[in-house]
Amino acid sequence: MGSYYAKTIFGSVQIAPPTIAETDLSNWFKINGDKNKSISISNLYTGVFIATESEMPINYGFININYNTSKTYFESNNIGYIVYDKRLTLPPDYNTLNRYQANSEMFPLYYYNKILYQNIDELKPKVSTLVYENNDFIICKT
Predict the structure, then answer these.
(1) How many angstroms separate the CA atoms of 97 and 116, rounded?
(2) For the chain, which terminal residue's Cβ has fewer other Cβ atoms within 10 angstroms, N or C?
(3) Average pLDDT in the 39-62 region?
(4) DSSP string, 4-19
C-alpha cells in the first residue's frame, strides 16, 4: 500500500496509512477515552482515524481553543480532550507563540511556530491537563 498525504502551503502530512503514533493514539483512546466526551484535534485527518477506531466523537471547533479557553466552553461543547499533532510545527519564532490555519484538500490543519512539546504550557488551555504523549501527539484532558 502506498502512502497518502494532505498538502498545505506549509508542506505535506501523511494521512494514510496510519502511522505507528496514530495507531498508538487510537489505542490510548480505546482504553482511556470517555466515549461521552469529544476530541478536538489540530489534524482532523488523524481525528477521523481516531473516531473510526476508538468510537470517540470529534468536535470540529479546534480553531476556538487557546490558552484562555474557559472550562464552560469545553463543558457546553462536550469537549473532553484536545489533541495536538507535533508534526504540524513551523520554524520557530521565539518572540510569540502563533497558530496558523492551513487549508488542505478536505480539512484545515493547525500549525504552530514553536516546538509543541517544549511549549505545551503556553499553548494548552490553562484549565486542561496533559495526560498522554507519544512521538507525534499530545493529549490534554479538559
Answers:
(1) 10
(2) N
(3) 97
(4) EEEEETTEEEEEESPP
Nearest to 82 by CA among 115, 50, 118, 114: 50
**What's the pLDDT at 94?**
64
- In this structure, are strands 38-41 and 99-103 parallel, antiparallel, or unpaired? unpaired
Angle between helices 44-54 and 20-32 (to 10 degrees): 50
- Cell numbers representing residue 58 in the block: 470529534
For residue range 90-119, what is the model confidence (pLDDT) as tens digits? 887 767 788 999 999 999 999 998 877 788
Buried b (16+ CB within 10 A) or exposed e, 96-129: ebebeebebeebbbbbbbbebeebbeebbbebbe
In the predicted model, is pLDDT for residue 49 greater than 70? Answer: yes
d(CA 35, CA 12): 31
**What does the pLDDT average to over 46-57?**
96
